[in-house]
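Our consortium's second objective concerns turning raw sequence data into structural hypotheses that experimental partners can test. To show how far this objective has progressed, the report includes one record in full. It was chosen at random from the queue rather than selected for favorable results. The single chain below, 333 residues long, was entered without modification.
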Amino acid sequence: MDGIPLTRCQFLIPFAGIHDEIGAPTASLLTKFRLPTSLEEKADHFLPIMPAIHFAEAAQRSQGITDFGFQAARRLQFCHLSERIRLLIGCSPTLFTALQQTCKWATLEDTVLSMWLERRDDHVRICSKLTGTAGMAHLEHSQWLQLIFPIHIVRQFAGSSWVPKTIAFEARYTPGPEPQSFWPNTRFLSGQEASWIDVPISLLSLPNLANEVLPDPSGDDARPAGNGIIATLKLMLPSYLDEGPPTVAEIAEMAGTSVRSLQRKLSDAGLTYSDLLGAARFENAAKYLRETDVKIIEIAFSSGYTDPAHFTRAFRRISGVTPRQFRNQWRSQ
């Protein structure tokens, strides 16, 4: 059983924001596709990619939003990449090194995102593809985001005005007048083997424009722990704690399997869905207790508990101490 393809909540925020600004019922549409409704504070959490794409397509169709992926991509900047990717780029002495690091660590953004470089005469292609999604409809929404971030990375070396000569989509999609007027000197292609932009080879040796000295973040411990069902559940569940987690049946549907097969997979690992959910709630609460002064009752609610006493009992069952004792111990250290 494969895992559930996940993406960072950050990449759904601009779609939801545009939908909300035109007065459309964003929360109800997010709920329809079983997506978290409170996204802003969960930018670095993960959610399922395919429901997010279905949300974007339903919103575009119902509200008549043209080139929705393009509109969302315009709202994203280099700062919206994960902190680890930004550090890797900041530590890269040349653009070529930065692109190599981006390809190596692409799964920090989407767990099934594959990126690579292809040499073509006087330029290289920065290629990307979501593994396991070939032939699926409406992937242009995601591909706009896959393409905009390499552009922002190149601009860290070539300057903020740099634009690629070619932007190519894996999807059979042709951008409308607005994207084409926004990049009047860029050629758009559709139906490619992968999505890609081209970068002149002459730019690859450009030095980093950033002047700050950053710590080396290249340790492998920051990479998402695989894409099996257990690993992806650990990544995904924190996004849903305060709004009610998906049921076992919903998880099985996302993973494209039966409830029985899902439960057997968990059982083979010595786990139940309740175990994973309890661990996610504990880790969420422990992080708040260690790093913030948020009231314990609010931490209980954000971790998915409606009864603070139940939260205290569950927390003590895992840690051996109450939430207040846990916080005091960390502060004393």
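The partners drew two points from this record. The radius of gyration is 21 Å. The chain has two domains: 6-221, 229-332. Both points have been shared with the crystallography group to help prioritize constructs.
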